[in-house]
Amino acid sequence: MKMWCLQILLFIIFIYLCCVTGAAEIIHVFGYEETEAKVSCSYDEGYESYEKYLCRNYCSSDDVLITTTEAHKNRYSISDDTNKQVFTATISNLNQNDAGKYWCGVTRSGILKDYYPAEVELKVEKDTCCDNSSKVQSYEGGSVSISCPYESQDQNNMKYICRGNQPSSCLQQALITSNNRQNTQFSLTDDKESKFTVTITSLTQKDSGSYLCGVKRNTGLDVFSAVDLEVRGERSQFKGKRDQAGMN
C-alpha cells in the first residue's frame, strides 16, 4: 500500500514538473513618467493560438492586466505577432506605481499550469534632468562650444543634443547627432574617449536656455547631462560701455 502511494506521489510530481514552465528569461524595461512602456514577450512554437496576457504579483485572475482577447483595457493594450511568436503589451501614461515586477503569461487549459515565458522588471523614471547643470555664456553673433562628458563604455554610441529638459523626447527633437555632424548652426565633434563637443554659431538671444547632451544606450535609458546657455548682447556693446565708463 505504501509503495503504491509512493508511486502515485512520484507520478503527480512528475506531471507537475512537466506541466509547469518557469520564466525562461528576465526582461528589463524602462520608461519615463507620463510616457509609455512596451513589453515584448517571446513564446515557444505551438502556442500561437493560445491566449496571452500580462499580469502582476501572483498572477491570479485579479492580477491580470490585459489579455489578447481584450486588446485594449484602461491604460493597457496588447497585440500578438504569431508569425514571430512574440506578443507585446503596452502600458500608457506611466507613473511610479507602475514600477515593479510583471509576468508574461500564456493560458493553458486542463491540468496544465499556465506558461510564463518571461519575468519583467519595469523601472519608471521622472521625465526631467538633471540635478546639476553646467553654465555657458557667450554673445550675440558669436559662437559657443558645449562640452558633454560621457563614460568610456559609450565611446561608440551615438551622441546628440537637444533643447529643453525632457529626456523622453530629446532624441526625436535633437538639434544635431553624431550620425549627422553638421548643419547650418550646429556641429558636433567626438574625441572618442570621454567627451563630445557641440559648437553653436551665429548666436542670438533666442538660443539662450536649457540643453541636454544625450548618449544613446543600446539597453536601458539614454544618459544625459544638462547645460544652461546664456547669450548676452553683442560683444561690441559691452566693450563700448566699458570704454565709456573708463573715460568717466
Description:
- This protein is mainly β.
- It folds into two domains: 20-125, Sandwich (Immunoglobulin-like); 133-234, Sandwich (Immunoglobulin-like).
- 14% of the residues lie in helices and 42% in strands.
- The strands form four sheets. It has a five-stranded mixed beta sheet with strand order 1-9-8-3-4, with no helix packed on it. It has a five-stranded mixed beta sheet with strand order 10-17-16-12-13, with no helix packed on it.
- The longest helix has 18 residues, at 2-19.
- The radius of gyration is 27 Å and the shape is elongated.
- The model is unreliable at 4-21 and 240-248 (pLDDT under 50).
